[in-house]
């Protein structure tokens, strides 16, 4: 149980285009989902917290207009990187949290390459 | 603000030997959770072990155990009988208590890359 999927696993896009990453909890309902960014050999950096049916809460320094997060249902959250640039190239990981005991389950991540 | 520090960027262990990864954290709370996560080359985050702060007993999961020193705010991970499959990046994490606005949020340490020599 407690499986989280991400799609796509790897995406290449051209500079200036937008790309959407999906995060799904497959066998449980997630009231809260988290989006992280990770550079090679570095730790996970929390970008935002999304709660089902409400606006996402962004961490300081994260551009909310660039990284659009939608959490339309209890099993799906999406991250859209708008007008992507090469510096947005990174590994993006989502996690889904159950209501109790608040455990987080991680997706396998999405590698974004912007050319 | 809560912080988590892993002072060992890299560690190495011989297969079948024991290795200890260090982690310290800072918090003013008395009840919280601490975690060790493993991130192998596939980059899938895998929960290794969890410790609840109010429990004095150190958590154990098969070959993995922790040394939780609450007063010292130290939370080290011991891997016994190391296997080649243990090679990965290991992250220590602190979870902000759920009653707060940012409740449930994980704060990660910088990570320790563990290599296992055959």
Keywords:
heterodimer, A: 115 residues, 7-stranded mixed β-sheet, 11 strands, 0% helix, globular, B: 118 residues, mainly beta, 4-stranded antiparallel β-sheet
Provide structural commentary:
- The complex is a heterodimer of chains A (115) and B (118).
- With 115 residues, chain A is mainly β.
- Chain A contains no helices and eleven strands.
- The model of chain A has no long low-confidence stretch (mean pLDDT 92).
- In chain A, 0% of the residues lie in helices and 53% in strands.
- Chain A starts with a strand and ends with a strand.
- In chain B, the strands form three sheets. In chain B, strands 2, 5, 6, 10, 11 and 12 form a six-stranded mixed β-sheet that branches. In chain B, strands 3-9-8-7 form a four-stranded antiparallel β-sheet, with no helix packed on it. Chain B has a two-stranded antiparallel sheet with strand order 1-4.
- Chain B is globular and about 45 Å long.
- Chain B starts with a strand and ends with a strand.
- Chain B contains no helices and twelve strands.
- By secondary structure, chain B is mostly beta strands.
- The A-B interface holds A 32, 34, 38, 41-44, 46, 49, 91, 93, 95, 97, 102, 104, 106, 108-109 and B 42-45, 89, 91, 95, 98, 102-106, 108-111, 113.
């Amino acid at each position: 149980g407690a499986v989280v999927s991400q799609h796509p696993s790897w995406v290449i896009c051209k500079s200036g285009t937008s790309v959407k990453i999906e995060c799904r909890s497959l066998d449980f309902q997630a009231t809260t989902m988290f989006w992280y960014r990770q550079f090679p050999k570095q730790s996970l950096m929390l970008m935002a917290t999304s709660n089902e049916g409400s606006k996402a809460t962004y961490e300081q320094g994260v551009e909310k207009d660039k990284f659009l997060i939608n959490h339309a249902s209890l099993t799906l959250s999406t991250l859209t990187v708008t007008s992507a640039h090469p510096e947005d190239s990174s590994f993006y990981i989502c996690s889904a949290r159950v209501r109790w005991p608040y455990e987080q389950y991680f997706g396998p991540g999405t590698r974004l390459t912007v050319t | 603000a809560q912080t988590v520090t892993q002072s060992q960027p890299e560690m190495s262990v011989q297969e079948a030997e024991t290795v200890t990864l260090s982690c310290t954290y800072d918090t003013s709370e008395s009840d919280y959770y601490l975690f060790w996560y493993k991130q192998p080359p596939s980059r899938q985050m895998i929960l290794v072990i969890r410790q609840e702060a109010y429990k004095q007993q150190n958590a154990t999961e098969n070959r993995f155990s922790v040394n939780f020193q609450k007063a010292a705010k130290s939370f080290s991970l011991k891997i016994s009988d190391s296997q080649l499959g243990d090679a990965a990046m290991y992250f220590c994490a602190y979870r902000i208590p759920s009653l707060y606005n940012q409740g449930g949020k994980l704060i990660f340490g910088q990570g320790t890359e563990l290599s296992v020599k055959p």
